[in-house]
Structures are given as structure tokens and as C-alpha cells.
Design goal:
Layout lengths: L17 H11 L11 H4 L7 E6 L7 H8 L5 E7 L4 E6 L2 H11 L3 E2 L2 E2 L1 E3 L12 H8 L5 H5 L20 H7 L11
Antiparallel strand pairs: 1-3, 1-6, 2-3, 4-5
InterPro entries: Nucleotide-bd_a/b_plait_sf, RBD_domain_sf, RRM_dom, Znf_CCCH
GO molecular function: RNA binding; zinc ion binding
Protein name: RNA binding motif protein 46
Amino acid sequence: EEEEEEGEWTVQHTVRSRTQQVKELDSLGQIRSKSHSPTPHSRGSFKPELFPVRVGTLASTTTYIKLHELFSRTGMVYSIKMLLEEQCALVNYTTKEDCERAIQYIDGMVLEGARLSVRYPFKAPAGSSSSDSCQHSSSQKKECFFWRTTGCTRGDCTYRHVPEHKNIDKDKFTSGLGFGSHAGDHK
């Protein structure tokens, strides 16, 4: 009779608590800055009043850990929401003083080659989440391409719709596709 095939691998998982894993990593010095952030246990079941700062012009290489280490220097960071596609983040502090210190000391600092813009977030419309202020600020600077060319029909478009610019580039756009008023005039 044939014995078990050689070369077969068995993966064994050790069961360790998250606390034990963190302690092991701590002993290697791989994590844990001198952070002032609360642990999940100290946050409790209620959400305290938060004081957010908007961090703009993030480099694509910026990580949550780097942001956390930097912003916890000015106070207790409750949470961070990163939107790298928008090149921004929202850092929530638990006190207004910490928030103000971050704006005062971190604004203009260079992180990962990018000069950070740290300020109070834009006021988001009622019913939107606090993270919308990053998207709102970035996209509101840009005008809607469709509004300028074919007329945007999205009711929830996040880009600017300047009334005077509606269809202003329609001829430029459609003539490039062969549909414009000058299409067929080639001699």
C-alpha cells in the first residue's frame, strides 16, 4: 500500500490573543509611537464631541501610521479618515485645543515630500458625513466636464456647475468627435 505523498504541507496556526501579538511587536520596536490616542476600550460606547482638521495635499505614499504619529504630537487623535484618491484626510481630535495646535504647528510642514495644508474642514451640507468635506473641497475646485460639453444630468454631481458655462465647450467637444457644426467641412 502507498504511504502518504511526500511534499504535502500542513499549515498550523498558533492561537495568540491580539494583546499578545502587540506585545511581541512592541518588544521588537516595530510599532507604537509615543501616541496620545485612546485605545478602543477607552473610547467606550459613546462617541465624544470631535474636533476635526482637514489635511490636504497628501503624498500618495503617506500612510495612516505616519499621519497618526505626526498628528498625535499635538494631542489626542480619536480617529483618522484618509481619502488618498482625494489627497486628503480628516484627523479627529477630542479637544478644540488639540485641533488648534495641529493647525498652528503642522500646517505647512513637509511630509513625504508634500507640504501639508492643515485647517478646519469645510462645512459639509446637513446629512453628509464629515469625510465629505475632503471630497467636497477637492472636487468643488474643478468644473464639471459634462456640464461644459454635453450638459451634466447627474443630480448628485460633486463638480462645479457654473451656469454661464453650460454647454460652452459643446462645439469644441462634438467637433472633435465628428458631430460638430463644422463636421464634414473638410476640403
